Amino acid sequence: MRFVVSPELTLPEQLALDEALLEMREAGGASGLDADCLRIWESASYGVVVGLANIVEAEVDARACQEAGIPILRRVSGGGTVLQGPGCLNYSLILGIEPGGSLDTVTGANTTIMNRIRNALQPLTAEPISVAGHTDLASGGRKFSGNAQKRKRRALLFHGTLLLDFDLPRIGRCLRAPSKQPDYRGGREHRDFVRNLPAARSAVTQALRDEWRAEIQEGRLPREEVARLVKEKYARDDWNLRR
Question: For 110-150, how does the pLDDT look when each residue is reduced to its tens digit (9 = 90+)?
């Protein structure tokens, strides 16, 4: 598997790069990025990212975000709304789908990938890590990772957040209680439900690379496609605020 090393990007560019890599994996080609890949990234600035079907008014305190200068963006995958920013590490996996294989269904991909991520991270902490809900990782009954996927016919994007040293109180100031909650949340507010995983970025990055055997290889990043997607989608209110 290829480990994609990308330069510092804005949050809209990060979302666009996920989509561009998925489309390249789906289509194939001569770029060197038409194979499975892993990338790990972190936003230098805060931004709310809603899931594809999320309704902004229901999930986000838009006034609080506006007053704080925090943009609201929308990604192409499902799942819930997250606050991105310093201290929230992200991983993105772009994987081919083999007919009849473990990734051939939504449930199969969730089970397979979530278990591998948990197994990779478990040696980094003495506290047991569990897969909770459908696509959360939790420790001590509190969530530190949310995950989602976007599926095409031949490939999928599976990506997730990993809270390491995030400003947790900021989540409650920007996000409302989610409209869909897993049973294990028990109606808890953000401040009582989320936590940081006590692990170093370098250790998390290496653990994920080891688990997926991701090596740095030559390949051209789809910079023009990223720029196009930002201009035509991720920088536009008619995409980000459409619901």
Answer: 999 999 999 999 999 999 999 998 899 999 999 999 999 99
Using pLDDT thresholds of 50, 70 and 90, give the confidence band for residue 33.
Answer: low
> What is the value of pTM for the model shown?
0.92
Output the CA–CA distances (angstroms, integers) from residue 111 to 82, 103, 158, in the order listed.
Answer: 21, 9, 12
Spatial CA neighbour of 241 closest among 65, 91, 92, 41: 65
Query: Which domains, ranges and CATH numbers included, belong to the chain?
Result: 2-240 (3.30.930.10)
Compute the average pLDDT of residues 32-45: 86
Alpha helices in 76-235 (DSSP H): 106-121, 168-174, 190-193, 201-212, 223-229
- Where are the strands (E) in 25-179, listed by range? 37-42, 47-50, 72-74, 82-84, 88-96, 129-132, 136-139, 142-151, 155-163
The dihedrals phi and psi of 96, each to the nearest 5 degrees, come to: -75, 150
Question: Is residue 92 within 8 Å of 21, Cβ to Cβ?
Answer: yes
Distance (Å, whole) CA 121 – CA 43: 21
